[in-house]
């Protein structure tokens, strides 16, 4: 009985997650897609490093950290742009995007310097 | 209610009154800040006035030499510089082992001034860098404390930091060391972190990472920042203060900060591989997990959330345990668990004395004594607890950060005297908060009891009490954002409102009770507080003038016939510079290495960087061995001159004979035939007639006391307060070439091996050479012919 109900619960859980997520606005979903893409790129780099070895370690580090960094910055952008977030309701989304661009610029400048 | 109507009627006049008052307050605080900067600069100028504009101590000479190189050859040469005039024959990669922040800062200032046709020399810029940056540091303290508690507390904290003796001791004019710039970078990084935490703006997060990069460039103490901030994030999560601003403040800092830290050559890959940085990664992961949990909680219904939790816990626990086990195995496999020696000695204070005698021997690494706390932070020592309590009422993210900062820095300052410097800004911030709050209480009681002003004050009281009625939760910052939507005259009024409503700790009754202090006692207490401040100022000026302004390369003493100046060090380095060849190597104890390369411009064997323990142990063994063995060791290192510092004639206590036991210990750590008990008689270190024969025959004794008996006929050593043991002896392998005016520095030359060997030695030499000629044919040229 426990097993069956827990299986049902798991199924219900995934369905409710799906429906709740489908309710988010389009621009937030685009940002989530970008975050997923960045994390996926980072994972590919890690798998490649495991297969081939980490010899130019600075290149590996800068590659992985740039992916993780831009994902983190996109999450910050999503937090600031989300209309349900009351703390940021007087922050115009253009300002949030400009901050996002600036931070990414600094991140990639540093990353290219370190790439070697 | 009648109250809001009267307030709305009075709002226009109150509005203009408020703006005028706020404008006046803004201009006043600007001028106060300017004066604080001027005071911070001028209190550090005592050494320039009393002595001259000269670089102090030992480490600053190395930084000065590096800055000279940078100014002469440009930044590309500096970045790739391999220094072959130190650690002979190993050399030192300067580009990869120095923290470049200080030298690049001073170099940039010099270049800027010179391109504006202000011809300051490199030395002048180096000498005055520290006072300028201490002015900047006090302004940064103002900004930081303003974010925590308001303008009043900010100004008080800035004034306290400008004068605190602990900071003065490492940033006088002439003390051109890393801390001069690093403390400014530390406070500024903390300010930007708190600002990001309060506003949630990604722009400030970027600035925070750049300021952290500047801190990493400047000082090895940057590990304090990268461990304190994760600790604070963890504290916020655990106490239920997680918010999206926390995520924005921390997550970009970790990624950008790690990348920036890896850019600095000294840190390099240590930024991801040493245990000092693991805390930041761990908290990064924890933060993401918590953020994800909050997000899921937000989009699911409570029942579904429970199901999700049970699912995750059952599946994720196994995976988590596996990952953690792998991590622990990785870390535990290295002998020091991934920590560097210095950090380990901070966590376990007994570590250095057991395993790394060099770290234990530096005087700055000893634990401080109780009087040094009162000497270094004086009055702040008992204002700090009051400030901690003031931070708790009300507790916000920023005030919890201040409490954490002061708790950790108190612990570390108790382990190492040098870290009192990191404790000083925390002490100033908390004491500034305490002083400012108490000033608030007393002046408010006075104001409320003076006739005529009470009518307008009533309106203020109504406003604040209505505002305090709204304040329910603990985060003051959300209060502030709600208020700004109501009225936004200027930033200063926002701060003033916040200041007013925080003090009565959100209870109107408590406010009325606090405000009812009797008039005469508040006046008296106010005067007493001002007297306390006066005591602090007097002590700081005294400490700056008398205790911390000595350049230690020039010594003075007063006697009945006036002022004596002991300029022996520069005399000796000048002699070396003018009377020896450019490529001659000079051997001395590592204390004097930097000064020798910078002022005498000669190659040295060991210097203050102390990165190679074996090399230092070689020099220490040579100093502790008899003349023959010492000659051999020095000859193998191509040494031409040996320099010893001797204070026995004038009573200078930090000479080489007093440091000799450290030489024995360090040498004995690598070469087991040097045993410390051989040099002690009954466990006591003596150089008089009761000293052991090993002690009386070692090189250090002989070089220090050669011909010493000629000075007063009895050979009385003023530092050890005894007559020396062996008075009449000759040197067989060394010859004295220079002794300074007060006998403080003595320079000896290695006697070259004799050209011809006659008599008995020839027979024994032919025997040994025929027996071992095959192996040692190449080495016979270097063999000591006196055996």
From TrEMBL, chain A:
Subcellular location per the Swiss-Prot or TrEMBL entry: Endoplasmic reticulum membrane
Major subcellular site: endoplasmic reticulum
Membrane topology value: Multi-pass membrane protein
Keyword terms: Apoptosis, Endoplasmic reticulum, Membrane, Transmembrane, Transmembrane helix
Pathway terms, separated by semicolons: Protein modification; protein glycosylation
Short name of any one Pfam family annotated for the protein: DAD
Transmembrane segments: 33-51, 57-77, 97-115
Domain of life, source organism: Eukaryota
Function, in words: Subunit of the oligosaccharyl transferase (OST) complex that catalyzes the initial transfer of a defined glycan (Glc(3)Man(9)GlcNAc(2) in eukaryotes) from the lipid carrier dolichol-pyrophosphate to an asparagine residue within an Asn-X-Ser/Thr consensus motif in nascent polypeptide chains, the first step in protein N-glycosylation. N-glycosylation occurs cotranslationally and the complex associates with the Sec61 complex at the channel-forming translocon complex that mediates protein translocation across the endoplasmic reticulum (ER). All subunits are required for a maximal enzyme activity.
Family: Belongs to the DAD/OST2 family.
Subunit: Component of the oligosaccharyltransferase (OST) complex.
Name of protein: Dolichyl-diphosphooligosaccharide--protein glycosyltransferase subunit DAD1
UniProtKB/TrEMBL annotation, chain B:
Keywords associated with the record: Glycosyltransferase, Magnesium, Manganese, Membrane, Metal-binding, Transferase, Transmembrane, Transmembrane helix
Transmembrane feature ranges: 23-43, 93-113, 125-144, 150-168, 180-205, 211-235, 247-272, 278-296, 308-332, 377-395, 402-435, 523-545
Pathway where this protein functions: Protein modification; protein glycosylation
Region Disordered: start-end pairs: 466-507, 754-787
Database matches in InterPro entries: Oligo_trans_STT3, STT3-PglB_core, STT3_N
Feature: compositional bias, Basic and acidic residues: 476-486, 496-507
Basic residues bias spans: 754-766
Source organism superkingdom: Eukaryota
Pfam family, one: STT3
Membrane topology: Multi-pass membrane protein
Localization of this protein: Endomembrane system
Family: Belongs to the STT3 family.
Protein name, entry field: dolichyl-diphosphooligosaccharide--protein glycotransferase
Origin species: Hibiscus sabdariffa (roselle)
């Amino acid at each position: 009985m426990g097993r069956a109900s827990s299986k049902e619960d798991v199924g219900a859980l995934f369905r409710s997650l799906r429906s709740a997520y489908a309710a988010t606005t389009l621009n937030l979903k685009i940002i989530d897609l970008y975050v997923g893409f960045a994390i996926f790129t980072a994972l590919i780099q890690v798998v490649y490093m495991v297969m081939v070895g980490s010899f130019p370690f600075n290149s590996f580090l800068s590659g992985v950290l740039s992916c993780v960094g831009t994902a983190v910055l996109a999450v910050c952008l999503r937090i600031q742009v989300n209309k349900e977030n009351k703390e940021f309701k007087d922050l115009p989304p253009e300002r949030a995007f400009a901050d996002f661009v600036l931070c990414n610029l600094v991140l990639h400048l540093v990353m290219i310097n370190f790439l070697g | 209610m009648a109250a809001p109507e009267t307030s709305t009627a009075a709002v226009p006049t109150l509005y203009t009154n408020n703006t005028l008052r706020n404008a006046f307050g803004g201009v006043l605080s600007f001028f106060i800040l300017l004066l604080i900067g001027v005071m911070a600069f001028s209190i550090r100028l005592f050494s320039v006035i009393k002595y001259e504009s000269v670089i102090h101590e030992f480490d600053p000479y190395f930084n000065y030499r590096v800055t000279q190189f940078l100014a002469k050859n440009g930044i590309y040469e500096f970045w790739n510089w391999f220094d072959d005039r130190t650690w002979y024959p190993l050399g030192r990669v300067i580009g990869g082992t120095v923290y470049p922040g200080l030298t690049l800062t001073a170099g940039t200032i010099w270049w800027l001034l010179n391109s504006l046709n202000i011809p300051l020399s490199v030395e002048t810029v180096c000498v005055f860098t520290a006072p300028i940056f201490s002015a900047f540091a006090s302004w940064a303290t103002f900004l930081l404390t303003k974010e925590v508690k308001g303008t009043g507390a900010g100004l008080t904290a800035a004034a306290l930091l400008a004068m605190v003796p602990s900071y003065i001791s490492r940033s006088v004019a002439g003390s051109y060391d890393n801390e001069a710039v690093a403390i400014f970078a530390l406070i500024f990084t903390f300010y930007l972190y708190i600002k990001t935490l309060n506003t949630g703006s990604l722009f400030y997060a970027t600035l925070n990472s750049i300021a952290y990069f500047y801190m990493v460039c400047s000082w090895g103490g940057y590990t304090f920042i990268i461990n304190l901030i994760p600790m604070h994030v963890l504290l916020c999560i655990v106490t239920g203060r997680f918010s999206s601003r926390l995520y924005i403040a921390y997550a970009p800092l970790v990624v950008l900060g790690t990348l920036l830290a890896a850019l600095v050559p000294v840190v390099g890959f240590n930024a991801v591989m040493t245990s000092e940085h693991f805390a930041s990664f761990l908290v990064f992961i924890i933060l993401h997990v918590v953020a994800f949990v909050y997000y899921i909680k937000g989009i699911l219904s409570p029942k579904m959330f429970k199901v999700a939790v049970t699912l995750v816990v059952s599946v994720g626990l196994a995976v988590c345990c596996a990952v953690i086990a792998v991590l622990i195995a990785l870390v535990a496999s290295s002998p020091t668990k991934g920590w560097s020696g210095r950090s380990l000695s901070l966590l376990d204070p007994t570590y250095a004395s057991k395993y790394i005698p060099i770290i234990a021997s530096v005087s700055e690494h000893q634990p401080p004594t109780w009087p040094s706390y009162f000497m270094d932070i004086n009055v702040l020592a008992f204002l700090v607890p009051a400030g901690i309590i003031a931070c708790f009422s009300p507790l916000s993210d920023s005030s919890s950060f201040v409490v954490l900062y002061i708790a950790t820095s108190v612990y570390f300052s108790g382990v190492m005297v040098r870290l009192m410097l990191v404790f000083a800004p925390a002490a100033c911030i908390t004491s500034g908060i305490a002083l400012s709050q108490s000033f608030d209480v007393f002046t408010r009681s006075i104001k409320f009891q003076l006739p005529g002003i009470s009518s307008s004050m009533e309106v203020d009281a109504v406003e604040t009490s209505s505002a305090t009625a709204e304040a329910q939760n603990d985060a003051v910052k959300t209060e502030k954002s709600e208020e700004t939507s109501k009225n936004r005259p200027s930033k200063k009024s926002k701060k003033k409102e916040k200041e007013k409503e925080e003090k009565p700790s959100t209870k109107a009754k408590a406010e009325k009770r606090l405000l009812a202090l009797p008039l005469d006692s508040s006046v008296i207490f106010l005067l007493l507080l001002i007297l306390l401040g006066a005591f602090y100022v007097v002590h700081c000026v005294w400490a700056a003038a008398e205790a911390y302004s000595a350049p230690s390369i020039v010594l003075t003493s007063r006697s009945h016939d006036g002022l004596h100046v002991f300029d022996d060090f520069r005399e000796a380095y000048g002699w070396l510079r003018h009377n020896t060849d450019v490529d001659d190597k000079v051997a001395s104890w590592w204390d004097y290495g930097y000064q020798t390369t910078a002022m005498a411009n000669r190659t040295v064997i060991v210097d203050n960087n102390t990165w190679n323990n074996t090399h230092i142990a070689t020099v220490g063994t040579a100093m502790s061995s008899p003349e023959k063995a010492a000659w051999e060791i020095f000859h193998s290192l191509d040494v031409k001159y040996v320099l010893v510092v001797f204070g026995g004639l004038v009573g200078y206590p930090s000479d080489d004979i007093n440091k000799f036991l450290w030489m024995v210990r360090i040498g004995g750590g690598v070469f087991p035939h040097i045993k410390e008990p051989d040099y002690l008689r009954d466990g006591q270190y003596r150089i008089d007639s009761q000293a052991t024969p090993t002690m009386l025959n070692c090189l250090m004794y002989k070089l220090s006391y050669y011909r010493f008996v000629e000075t007063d006929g009895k050979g009385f050593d003023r530092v050890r307060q005894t007559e020396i043991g062996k008075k009449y002896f000759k040197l067989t392998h060394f010859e004295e070439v220079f002794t300074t005016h007060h006998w403080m520095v003595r320079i000896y030359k290695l006697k070259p091996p004799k050209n011809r060997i006659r008599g008995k030695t020839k027979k024994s030499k032919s025997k040994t050479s025929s027996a071992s000629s095959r192996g040692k044919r190449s080495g016979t040229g270097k063999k000591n012919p006196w055996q």
